[in-house]
């Protein structure tokens, strides 16, 4: 099963026409909407095992403080913080139109893990998954995400506006007050997939009476820090030197061995291999907005 094909239909056409070039609304014949349903979300909320930071609630004013929906819980004589209380969560959703965000779902939900792993393997990227359940009237701020994004609409409808990519290589994945002209303005319906290239600004708002539920698969792009980290890991691998040389000769010998080790490691490293390895390990410190 080609999981990327289930999201984009014709993989070669997608890579040639849309990938890292511009936003697109895709209508695959067999979208992976079965990986998570509204009923599954209800079960997760009621099950009582959801915890911060894997889950969070947002209102129009921003993040809702977790103490409002995560009362301390006594487990085996220990106080456990950060557990979502189903009654409080449903109250905030009902009374304050809160949006539920589930983070890094690929860590803890097997069908989503299989989907993201397949997509990431096909594209040579680290793939992470986020789920959003929201009601009409709660638009997101215009922002840029840290990676290419595939938005799989599972149920309900959401309207998206996608703007252009960043012009400055020092851009940050934060709200953008001046994103430029809209490139794509569309409703995304169940079974449809929206592609947003890395860093392209966008905003979304649920429409209609039914809550919107979508799964966002983020394909992380390597940054300079990932290249630096990967290179450092390669240079340090299999390096065994004495921690405290006893005299000048031993210290000089250790320095020579260190240089020889680095030269050998660098000789076998190409820019392409370094980029590929960095992309497969490009974790972000910021959850997708």
TrEMBL record:
It comes from Streptomyces klenkii. Pfam families: JmjC_2. Residues 96-236 form the JmjC domain. This is Cupin. PROSITE patterns: JMJC. It comes from the Bacteria. Gene3D superfamilies: Cupin. Keywords: Iron, Metal-binding. InterPro entries: JmjC_dom (IPR003347), NO66-like (IPR039994). PANTHER family: MINA53 MYC INDUCED NUCLEAR ANTIGEN (PTHR13096), RIBOSOMAL OXYGENASE 1 (PTHR13096:SF8). Its cofactor is Fe(2+). One of its GO terms (molecular function) is metal ion binding.
């Amino acid at each position: 099963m080609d999981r990327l094909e289930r999201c984009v239909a014709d993989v070669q056409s997608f890579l040639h026409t849309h990938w890292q070039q511009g936003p697109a609304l895709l209508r695959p014949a067999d979208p992976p909407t079965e990986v998570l349903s509204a009923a599954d979300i209800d079960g997760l909320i009621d099950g009582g095992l959801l915890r911060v930071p894997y889950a969070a609630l947002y209102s129009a004013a921003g993040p809702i403080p977790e103490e409002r929906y995560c009362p301390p819980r006594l487990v085996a004589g220990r106080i456990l913080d950060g557990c979502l209380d189903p009654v409080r969560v449903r109250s905030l959703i009902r009374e304050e139109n809160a949006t539920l965000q589930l983070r890094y779902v690929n860590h803890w939900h097997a069908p989503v893990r299989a989907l993201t792993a397949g997509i990431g393997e096909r594209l040579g990227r680290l793939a992470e998954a986020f789920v959003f359940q929201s009601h009409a009237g709660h638009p997101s701020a215009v922002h840029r995400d840290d990676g290419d994004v595939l938005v799989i609409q599972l149920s309900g409808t959401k309207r998206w506006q996608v703007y252009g990519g960043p012009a400055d290589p020092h851009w940050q994945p934060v709200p953008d007050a001046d994103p430029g002209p809209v490139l794509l303005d569309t409703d995304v319906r169940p079974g449809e997939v929206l592609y947003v290239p890395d860093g392209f600004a966008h905003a979304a708002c649920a429409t209609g009476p039914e809550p919107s539920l979508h799964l966002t698969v983020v394909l992380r792009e390597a940054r300079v820090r990932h290249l630096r980290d990967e290179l450092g890991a390669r240079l340090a691998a299999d390096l065994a030197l004495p921690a405290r040389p006893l005299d000048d000769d031993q210290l000089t010998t250790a320095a020579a061995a260190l240089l020889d080790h680095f030269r050998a490691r660098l000789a076998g490293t190409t820019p392409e291999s370094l980029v590929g390895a960095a992309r497969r390990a490009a974790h972000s410190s910021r959850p997708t907005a």
